[in-house]
Amino acid sequence: MLSRIIDNIKGDKYIWYIISILSAISLLLVYSSTRSLAYRNTQGDTEYYLLRQGIILGVGLFIIFFIHRIDHRYFSRVAQMMLILSVPLLLYTKFFGVRVNDASR
Hints:
Elements: H1 2-7, H2 13-41, H3 48-68, H4 72-96, E1 99-100, E2 103-104
Antiparallel strand pairs: 1-2
Helix pairs in contact: 2-3
């Protein structure tokens, strides 16, 4: 069954492998590093942060899949418009931004 799912994946399979591996690692790391914190803060529910990370990860994977289905030429046009928009924003920051430690923000 898993091989049938992998065969139907569109796009670069190695990128999907990397995303899957990093997602699994993130779940393991979040669970192992926040188990005692979750036990203290949620009255014994050690899976609280794991479930939260899983939900965020699921939403993120859905967004990745949805964006993956959009034609890449659309993003080329959007990037050109954003580049044109960034110049006035940089000028605005230069002249009207808050200056902290010799940096305008």
